[in-house]
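Researcher: Re-running this chain for the archive, since the previous output was lost when a drive failed. Same request as before.
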Amino acid sequence: MELVISYLILTSWEVYLFTIQRACLEFSRALEIDQHSGRVMLPWWYGTLWFARIARWALIFFIFKSFGWVLAISLLLIPTVLNIFIPIPYKHSLRTFINVIHKQISLGKTEPYIILHTQLKLLEKDILNQPNL
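Model: Regenerated structure tokens:
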């Protein structure tokens, strides 16, 4: 049972990181910048996504060996279904992205960050005025 609980925790973390990535992509499109350039908005802990993915697949293997393929396949469907129905957390992500860019500017990195910071602040005003997001 610990395997299943561990799997669900890792899946929750992976789904959260996926929604952050989706928000970053949407903001990149809204700001009309290249999606690869928009990756600078992602926080440093976004890199834990790879750990979560590898660990999740390892857990699925052990769940398959311990409980059978029905439970393993059922658990594999959870992130897919969640990613379809969970809305993108625009307001939370925007604040995270602004903080990341602000930190980069405070470290002396100015080239793309000052422009992004200004654009995100303008976008923040638009988003905060929309109650649905």
